Amino acid sequence: MKTVLRSLESPDQTQKMAQELSSFLEKGDVLGLRGNLGSGKTTFVQGLAQGLKILDGYAVSSPTFAFIHEYACSKTPLFHMDFYRLAEGSEAESLGLDLYLQGQGICAIEWFEKAQALLPKDFLELEFRVASENTRDIHMIAHGPRSQKILSNFF
User: Fold this and answer.
1) 2 φ, ψ to 5°?
2) For residue 91, what are the contacts with CB-CB under 8 A and spacing of at least 6?
3) Torsion-angle region of 43 (φ positive above 0: left; ψ -120 to 50: alpha; else: beta)
4) Could you identify which of 12, 33, 44, 128 might form a hypothetical disulfide with 39, taking C-beta atoms 3.0 to 4.6 angstroms apart as the criterion?
5) Please, are residues 128 and 141 in contact by the beta-carbon 8 Å criterion?
6) Which CATH superfamily is domain 3-154 in?
């Protein structure tokens, strides 16, 4: 299992890192985002969408109340999910999560641990920690060979 730790000193750096990471992602890749409220998860997804060339008219926001936002991007669709308000397990199944995980786009899932049993075994976990007012530590953990390849190519 490959792991990498990266410290970022601003929201702009978080978005820039996500933009750079997006160039190594393909349809079917799943990113599990873990961290407290305000730790930078949605900021990261905003950068990811920019890197995937989000189409005009779309603005990335937290899908806390909608659970899932779909973004059209010129490279591949981005499915942004937020399971913060989700009851563990069965409620995730009723959202049709399996349809999004069939490889039609890239999935970025905030609070993924609430439905981890439904995720593929191979996914990239990103844990966001608040180190100071502006600094975030992002611990990236590859779960499986595809995710290890992403991290190896990225670093």
Assistant:
1) -90, 135
2) none
3) alpha
4) 128
5) no
6) P-loop containing nucleotide triphosphate hydrolases (3.40.50.300)
Q: Would you call 118 helix, strand, or coil by DSSP? A: helix
Residue 7 — φ and ψ, nearest 5°?
Answer: -105, 130
Phi, psi of 115 (to 5 degrees): -140, 30
Q: Which residues touch 59 (CB under 8 Å, ≥6 apart)?
A: none
**Structure confidence by residue, pLDDT tens digits, 24-37:** 999 999 999 999 98
* Residue 127 CB neighbour total at 10 angstroms: 17
pTM score: 0.91
CA distance 147 to 25: 9
d(Cα 60, Cα 83) in Å, to the nearest integer? 16
Under the banding of pLDDT at 50, 70 and 90, the label for residue 67 is confident
**Which tokens belong to 105?**
């786009």
76: helix, coil or strand?
A: coil
Q: For residues 88 and 12, what is the distance between their CA atoms, to the nearest angstrom?
A: 32
The CA distances from residue 64 to 38, 41, 69, 81, 109, in Å, are 13, 12, 9, 8, 11
